[in-house]
């Protein structure tokens, strides 16, 4: 594998993993906070999570999806033809 | 009294004269009533629960029949007795996987139906329940439960985790693009006035009930091809309902039939995201399953919707 391809490959994989973890962390924080709010009957927790975490979660999900989409085309041949 | 008659009786009991009101201009709130009303003054949400349950049961029955057909056609042999685990052992070995269903069951239960109503009206949570997005809850809970159930198969160490996650990236090449362009196409068609076009077609039609139900079914299914079911119902749901009710279809039957028609979205090639997700998971070529999806799923589901709209398949209310 040429050095350039290997660099692109590593950057893509790192960005994919990083954006996925950010997205998953935000979404998990959103759901966990709302779940605690429902169980503890604390409506302000449910509302606070929706107000502060929903848009960041969706934004992170969009970024993660775009990175995955672009990354699939930048992968070296043979690694991106599964989907 | 058959099912459709019970539906009709129920609708008339709650909303006498509702059909006559719909023959005129469309009320703006027709498909956007408050939380216990669907289709404005026509039907309550509670009235269509059982109807939709019946419609779902018909589709489930069709799938069971279809599986039986595939088993016979492909001559799939019965598993040897020694490979069949006793029920108790099978539940002990695979039972924990059933917990994953809770990932969908919990958010649906607390946001839709009697428990949601109870939490909204009789608990401190009140309207905060409406802030819960099941589109976020379901994937997060399913992922969390899957990680717990399958914890023994998970990688160990940060590097192994990174590799495990990154290996999923190729799947996004087609899935990500398709979902993006499907949503974009949906928005463009809405901006171009697809709903008005459908309205123009149906408004100038002088058709009987049977032809109108079939025509609406085809139109909704065609629209559901490039659009999601939500976008489809937003674009043509109201005009479809008006068209069906105006030719004498009971409102509950009309709503049920329209939702069945729109449910072909997942099996409508070529732009349904579900097809590509399923193909990505199984490694199948999406274009090879277009025709089978059409004949085994889309057309039969359309027929089920038509039969419900015609009153030939009874539903409860």
What is the topology?
The complex is a heterodimer of chains A (83) and B (317).
Chain A (H helix, E strand, L loop, with lengths): L2 H37 L3 H32 L9
Chain B lengths: L2 H12 L3 H5 L14 E2 L4 E2 H29 L13 H8 L7 H10 L2 H9 L11 H16 L8 H9 L5 H20 L2 H10 L5 H16 L4 H18 L4 H12 L10 H10 L7 H21 L7
Antiparallel strand pairs in B: 1-2
Explain this structure to me?
The complex is a heterodimer of chains A (83) and B (317). Helix content of chain A is 83%, strand content 0%. Chain A contains two helices and no strands. In chain A, α1 (3-39) packs antiparallel against α2. Chain A starts with a helix and ends in a 9-residue tail after the last helix. In chain A, 33% of the residues are buried. Chain B is an all-alpha fold. Chain B has helices at 3-14, 18-22, 45-73, 87-94, 102-111, 114-122, 134-149, 158-166, 172-191, 194-203, 209-224, 229-246, 251-262, 273-282, 290-310, and strands at residues 37-38, 43-44. Chain B is globular. Chain B starts with a helix and ends in a 7-residue tail after the last helix. The chains are: A mainly alpha (83), B mainly alpha (317). Chains A and B meet through α1 and α2 of A and α7, α8 and α9 of B.
Tally of DSSP helical segments of chain A: 2
Q: Structural class from helices and strands of chain B?
A: mainly alpha
The averaged pLDDT of chain B comes out at 77
Identify the strand order in the major beta sheet of chain B: 1-2
Radius of gyration of chain B: 22 Å
Give the low-pLDDT segments of chain A.
none
* Rounded Rg of chain A: 18 Å
The end-to-end distance of chain A, rounded to whole angstroms, is: 22 Å
Number of helices of chain B: 15
Biggest sheet overview of chain A: none
Order of helices and strands of chain B: HHEEHHHHHHHHHHHHH
Question: What is the chain-wise order of helices and strands of chain A?
Answer: HH
Oligomer status: heterodimer
Structural class of chain A: mainly alpha
């Amino acid at each position: 594998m040429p050095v350039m391809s290997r660099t692109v490959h590593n950057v893509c994989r790192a960005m994919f993993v990083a954006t996925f973890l950010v997205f998953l962390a935000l979404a998990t924080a959103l759901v966990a906070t709302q779940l605690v709010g429902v169980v503890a009957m604390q409506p302000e927790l449910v509302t606070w999570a929706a107000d502060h975490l929903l848009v960041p979660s969706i934004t992170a999900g969009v970024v993660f999806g775009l990175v995955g989409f672009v990354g699939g085309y930048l992968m070296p041949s043979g690694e991106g033809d599964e989907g | 009294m058959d099912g459709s008659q019970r539906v009709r009786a129920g609708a008339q009991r709650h909303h006498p004269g509702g059909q006559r009101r719909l023959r005129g201009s469309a009320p703006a709130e027709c498909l956007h009533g408050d939380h216990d009303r669907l289709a404005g003054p026509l039907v309550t949400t509670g009235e269509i629960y059982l109807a939709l349950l019946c419609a779902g049961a018909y589709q489930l029955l069709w799938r069971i029949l279809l599986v039986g057909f595939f088993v016979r056609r492909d001559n799939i042999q019965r598993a040897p007795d020694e490979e069949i685990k006793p029920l108790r052992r099978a539940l002990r070995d695979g039972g924990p996987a059933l917990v994953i269903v809770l990932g969908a069951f919990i958010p649906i239960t607390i946001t839709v139906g009697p428990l949601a109503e109870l939490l909204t009206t009789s608990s401190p949570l009140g309207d905060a329940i409406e802030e819960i997005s099941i589109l976020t809850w379901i994937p997060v809970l399913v992922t969390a439960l899957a990680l717990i159930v399958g914890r023994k198969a998970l990688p160990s160490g940060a590097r192994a985790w990174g590799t495990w996650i990154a290996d999923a990236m190729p799947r996004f090449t087609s899935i990500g693009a398709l979902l993006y362009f499907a949503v974009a196409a949906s928005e463009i068609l809405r901006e171009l006035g697809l709903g008005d076009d459908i309205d123009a077609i149906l408004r100038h039609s002088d058709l009987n009930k049977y032809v109108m139900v079939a025509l609406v079914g085809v139109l909704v299914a065609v629209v559901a091809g490039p659009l999601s079911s939500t976008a489809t119902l937003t674009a043509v749901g109201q005009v479809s309902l008006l068209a069906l009710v105006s030719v004498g279809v009971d409102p509950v039957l009309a709503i049920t039939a329209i939702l069945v028609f729109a449910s072909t979205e997942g099996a409508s090639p070529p732009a349904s995201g579900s097809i590509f997700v399923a193909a990505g998971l199984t490694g199948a070529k999406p274009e090879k399953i277009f025709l089978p999806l059409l004949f085994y799923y889309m057309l039969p589901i359309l027929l089920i919707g038509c039969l419900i709209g015609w009153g030939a398949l009874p539903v409860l209310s």
